[in-house]
Write a structure and sequence with these properties.
Blueprint (H helix, E strand, L loop, with lengths): L4 H6 L9 E2 L3 E5 L5 E9 L12 H18 L5 E3 L15 E8 L2
Antiparallel strand pairs: 1-2, 2-3, 3-5, 4-5
The protein binds adenosine monophosphate.
């Protein structure tokens, strides 16, 4: 999607460092961290939110990506969060899973 910030990040337009990448997703640090560690798992496929997701396999791949990256970084305790819809706090309309660990700032 041309005007999607996460599609641009995936495309390398901003030079964002990926802490992890696989066939389905990239993982990078949240620019405005709400915890000591705050990562975003973002599918390479543009899907606006969970409401528009039709591929149940993709969600499984994304959760396995959460496991991969937390194991890789030695993060043993963490929360996962998916905001769906503006009123629930979704700001970027490209599906993503937050990984939050350590002291929370909310
Ligand atoms: P949400 O509110 O669930 O849509 O989460 C969007 C998240 O993306 C927020 O926590 C933002 O801080 C984060 N974010 C927005 N722009 C960027 C960016 N350029 N790089 C990294 N994280 C970003």
């Amino acid at each position: 999607m041309a005007d999607c910030i996460f599609c641009k990040i995936i495309n390398g337009d901003f030079g964002t460092e990926f802490v992890h990448e696989n066939e389905y997703a990239v993982v990078f640090k949240d620019i405005n961290p709400k915890a000591d560690i705050h990562l975003l798992v973002v599918p390479k496929l543009h899907v606006e939110s969970l409401n528009e997701l039709n591929d149940e396999n993709l969600l499984g791949k994304l959760m396995m990506t959460v496991k991969e990256v937390t194991q890789k970084l030695g993060i043993k305790s963490y929360k996962t969060l998916i905001n769906t819809g503006k009123e629930a706090g979704q700001e970027v309309f490209h599906l993503h899973i937050h990984i939050l660990s350590g002291k929370m700032k909310f």
